Amino acid sequence: MSNANAPVVPALVIRRVLRAPRERVFAAWAEPDTLRRWLAPGEMRVAHLDFDPRAGGAYRLTMLTPDGEPFVVHGVIRELRAPERLSMTWQWEDDNGAPEGNETILTLDFYDRDGDTELVLTHENLTDEQSRERHEHGWNDILDKMPGLLGGAGASSRHPFKVTGIDLSGYMVKDAARAIDFYRELLGLEPVLVYPENRGAEYELPDGATFGLWGGGGRVMPFQPSNGILFAVDDLDTAVAATKARGIAVFMENETAACRMAMIHDTEGNIVTLHERKLR
User: Fold this and answer.
1) Does the reported pTM lie above 0.85?
2) 12-150: what CATH class?
3) Whole-number Cα distances in Å, 213 to 108, 226, 243, 265
4) In terms of CATH, what superfamily is 163-277?
5) Backbone angles phi, psi at 203, to 5 degrees
6) C-alpha dist (Å) from residue 119 to 107, 108, 136, 190
7) Measured between alpha carbons, how far is residue 143 from residues 120, 152, 173, 209, 256 in Å?
């Protein structure tokens, strides 16, 4: 595609060294579910992303400012060579969805630096200094989010999020009402919270521990005939993104009035739940 305006400024080049293996840094840029969590500058957020991670695949990204103003960009992936290079066209859209300004080229190169990653971002075909400065500011804002996603300076690159304790420990149940009656009649335990639709209950024990019963036909948590543990994490979004970046599937996510959670399997097939309370 020919550009309406010839580029008149040098390519924008930004270099960052990240304390994470390049396979994981590359995955953060190539995994759509991960990109949706962070690919927007500053206080902006990703409102919508379609991203086909293959050479020739198309993408379209909608970012929103805090006051709801949309910024939309689309393009085509020119090269995807894991974990070394990702290159794509970059075309902004106007309010009517028509191309606005110049079609530019964004290229990301990932270099192994003794287990860390040097990321080189190159943005070419920008037409003037104002455009170059805006893109430099935006890309630096976005890249500033990567250490938090990957673990950050001073944190272990293998552990980008922190488990702060066990929020709840309990049992999966097939019939929550029946189980609640059992624990009431046998142990004298009264729930402090009963979930609707036969989904279970929570109990506050005298020592401060929380015990849970979870049911509801798998709508909140899948049934497994074993103990259930909900590990408290400091940032669920970061935990989910880091988990997916390591190639571990998150097979179920759920949100209630009190919490958000994401479920994975360990190497033995146990359900491990990452849990973030909304109120503490």
Assistant:
1) no
2) alpha beta
3) 47, 11, 26, 20
4) 2,3-Dihydroxybiphenyl 1,2-Dioxygenase, domain 1 (3.10.180.10)
5) -130, 135
6) 10, 7, 15, 55
7) 11, 12, 44, 40, 32
b/e burial code for range 95-104 (CB count within 10 A of at least 16 → b) = eeeeeebbbb
Q: Are 221 and 199 in contact (CB under 8 A)?
A: no
Q: Give me the mean pLDDT over the 1-10 stretch.
A: 64
Q: What token pair was written down for 105?
A: 């080229």
The pair of three-digit structure tokens given for residue 235, joined into one six-digit string: 């940032």
Residue 18: name the closest of 107, 137, 86, 115 by CA: 115
Mind listing the pLDDT tens digit for each residue in 130-165?
999 999 999 999 998 888 778 644 344 445 567 788
Q: Other C-beta atoms within 10 Å of 155: how many?
A: 16
3-state helix, strand, coil in the chain (%, to 5): 20, 40, 40
**Helix and strand element counts for the chain (H, E):** 6, 15
Taking only the tens place, the pLDDT of each residue in 152-161 is 443 444 455 6
